[in-house]
DNA sequence: GTAGGGTTAG
């Protein structure tokens, strides 16, 4: 009864089938098709595509002597899944005969690519279709909905001959992607029958919009699970996961405990509402997110039915707390580790800085996917092995894996680390051509440009962001201006940010204070520092004190800076002493410079910077004997002068 | 081989 609409749609498709020519059925008799070499190859092809091995799939496709429409469709589907629309289109144009599935595939391909040009082409092809089935309509409706074009989605929804649950789900999801909770719920209520998939769509969208109470209310209202509805446990699992994401572990557990377990009664024969492995995994994930590893482990140990997801969840939990011993132990124990298990282990090793072992695991993987590459590249970037990251990035492309926004975000950070504007610009072009930039991509571009001295380009990226700019984006731009000495611009942008009610973070204030330091604004600096504490309730950190020391020092208020260091509630770190030492050099205060240099040398005995600064100070003042003794001391302590620190300036 | 929805990796 709950699948009424699904049944309706099946009837639709079945009714339309006779009008659609299916090539393989007419080309060869059915009885020997199943065992035919063609069918065997088709199965192999779809298996390769399912496991993401696209280049192997293409090799097989190219080597096949006979191909039917299913062969072509499978290959097209592989490219569509990977958003390689040009390749998909080429095959679509080349194929000898197209059926409705071929058309649906290519239309769906265009709609899942970003950019209005693609959407228009998808729509054009939809209009050109010789036959349309329910899937064709739903593809276009969901395509518009995901691209924020709810006007078109609704227009087509109203124009389609008969709806099924999928049509409704696509519209509901579309509303919720746009944050339109009211319309989503309203639309859900117009459905004559609610099946679990619509309920899932609604609940997961409500959770994304932070509407947990509303989601719980609707779940209660739609039945407590024992009234014959299909798989209502899906909807429960959605909400359990949603509570987990928002940190409401107790509510999640109440819901979980409310689902009957298998051993609650002996009524096994009848299919009914029960906990399944996803319920267990979702509940386990709640504990993982809350950092409650003991509870997660307890649940895992109690589970009767185990799947890879359960193992992977627990592995990722140990990875998150950096317990690689336990993570590796589980990895070895699990019956068949999959690509997710490998990726988690690689990520954990990279996070611990063990790049060699991470790389070793990476190379031993039976099959890598895009995330494997992203994980290892991000690992190299975070550990500042930029050359290694670039090498992997080229290898990835040689192996036919296309970078996505995560890859690009990492390699843009690599170009920042290398201060390589040329590379950064090339990557920026790649971004423009291949992905719809999101916040992390824009933020890494802004940081890259400003670190590479191209503040105008940073500003262009910032201004071209059409949608909402998150606080990290603002921080990146304000920080860029501040480090460039463009204090007025930094402070102006900060004002604008506050006017737009974007809540600043402690990082924003580090940049604001740096801007004040560059501009010599002592009063303004203090004012901002106090405003941070009093207006925004942000606890000052040692970084803020370092900026204040810098502000005072640059203005020659060295004793005030020293007093601040002595009274601040933190142990001064190298940034604090570095700021003081730099100021002492500018204002030729040898006495305090020695204090700062001494502290710096204690913190970082191997660093040559304080020695070089002291040397240059003495040299500047013409005190060559003292300068020479610094050099000798450095030799004695076996400190090597690092590139980038000049003996002259 | 195609449209929507629940848990795990970057």
UniProtKB/TrEMBL annotation:
GO annotation, biological process: RNA modification
Keywords: Repeat
Any single Pfam family the record assigns to this protein: PPR_1
Record-level Gene Ontology MF annotations: RNA binding
Spans of repeat PPR: 68-102, 133-167, 232-262, 276-310, 338-368, 369-403, 470-504
Keyword match Repeat: yes
InterPro entries: E_motif, PPR_At4g14850-like_plant, PPR_rpt, TPR-like_helical_dom_sf
Entry keyword annotation includes Phosphoprotein: no
Protein family (similarity comment): Belongs to the PPR family. PCMP-E subfamily.
Family annotation (PANTHER family): PENTATRICOPEPTIDE REPEAT-CONTAINING PROTEIN
Protein name per its UniProtKB record: Pentatricopeptide repeat-containing protein, mitochondrial
Organism: Glycine soja (Wild soybean)
UniProt lineage: Eukaryota, Viridiplantae, Streptophyta, Embryophyta, Tracheophyta
């Amino acid at each position: 009864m709950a699948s009424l609409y699904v049944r309706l749609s099946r009837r639709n498709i079945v009714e339309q089938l006779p009008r659609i020519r299916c090539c393989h059925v007419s080309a060869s008799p059915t009885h020997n098709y199943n065992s035919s070499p063609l069918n065997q190859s088709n199965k192999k092809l779809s298996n390769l595509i399912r496991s993401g091995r696209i280049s192997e799939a293409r090799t097989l496709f190219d080597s096949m002597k006979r191909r039917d429409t299913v062969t072509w469709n499978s290959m097209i589907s592989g490219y569509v899944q990977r958003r390689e629309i040009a390749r998909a289109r080429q095959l679509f144009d080349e194929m000898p005969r197209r059926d409705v599935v071929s058309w649906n595939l290519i239309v769906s391909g265009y709609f899942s690519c970003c950019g209005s040009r693609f959407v228009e082409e998808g729509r054009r092809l939809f209009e050109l279709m010789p036959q349309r089935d329910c899937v064709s309509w739903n593809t276009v409706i969901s395509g518009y909905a995901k691209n924020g074009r709810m006007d078109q989605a609704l227009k087509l929804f109203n124009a389609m001959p008969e709806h099924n649950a999928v049509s409704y789900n696509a519209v509901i999801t579309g509303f919720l992607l746009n944050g339109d909770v009211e319309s989503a719920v309203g639309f859900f209520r117009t459905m004559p029958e609610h099946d679990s998939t619509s309920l899932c769509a609604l609940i997961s969208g409500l959770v994304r919009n932070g509407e947990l109470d509303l989601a719980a209310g609707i779940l209660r209202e739609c039945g407590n699970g024992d009234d014959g509805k299909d798989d209502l446990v899906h909807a429960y699992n959605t909400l359990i996961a949603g509570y987990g994401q928002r940190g409401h572990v107790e509510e999640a557990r109440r819901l979980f405990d409310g689902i009957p377990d298998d051993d609650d009664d002996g009524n096994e024969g009848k299919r009914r509402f029960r906990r399944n492995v996803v319920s267990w995994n979702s509940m386990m994930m709640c504990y993982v997110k809350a950092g409650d590893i003991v509870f997660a482990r307890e649940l895992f140990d109690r589970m009767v039915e185990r799947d890879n997801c359960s193992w992977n969840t627990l592995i990722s939990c140990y990875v998150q707390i950096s317990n690689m011993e336990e993570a590796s132990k589980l990895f070895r124990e699990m019956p068949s580790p999959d690509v997710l298990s490998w990726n988690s282990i690689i990520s954990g090793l990279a996070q611990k800085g063990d790049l060699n072992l991470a790389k070793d695991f990476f190379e031993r993987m039976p099959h890598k996917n895009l995330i494997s590459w992203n994980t290892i590249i991000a690992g190299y970037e975070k550990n500042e092995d930029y050359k290694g990251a670039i090498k992997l990035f080229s290898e990835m492309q040689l192996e036919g894996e296309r970078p996505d926004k995560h890859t690009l975000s990492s390699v843009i950070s690599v170009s920042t680390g290398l201060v390589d504007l040329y590379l950064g610009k090339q990557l920026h072009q790649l971004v423009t051509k291949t992905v719809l930039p999101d916040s992390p991509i824009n933020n890494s571009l802004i940081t890259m440009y400003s670190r590479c001295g191209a503040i105008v380009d940073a500003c262009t990226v910032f201004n071209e962001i059409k949608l909402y700019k998150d606080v990290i984006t603002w921080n990146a731009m304000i920080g860029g201006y501040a480090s460039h000495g463009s204090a007025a611009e930094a402070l102006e942008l900060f004002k604008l940010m506050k006017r737009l009610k974007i809540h600043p973070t402690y990082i924003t204030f580090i940049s604001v204070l740096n801007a004040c330091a560059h501009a010599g604004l002592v009063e303004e600096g203090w004012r901002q520092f106090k405003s941070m504490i009093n207006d925004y309730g942000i606890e000052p950190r040692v970084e803020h004190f370092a900026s204040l020391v810098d502000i005072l020092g640059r203005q020659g208020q060295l004793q005030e800076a020293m007093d601040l260091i002595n009274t601040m509630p933190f142990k001064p770190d190298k940034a604090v002493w570095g700021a003081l030492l730099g100021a002492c050099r500018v204002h030729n205060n040898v006495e305090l410079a020695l204090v700062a240099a001494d502290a710096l040398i204690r913190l970082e005995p191997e660093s040559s910077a304080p020695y070089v600064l002291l040397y240059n100070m003495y040299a500047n003042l013409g005190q060559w004997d003292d300068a020479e003794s610094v050099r000798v001391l450095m030799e004695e302590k076996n400190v090597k002068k690092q590139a980038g620190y000049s003996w002259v300036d």
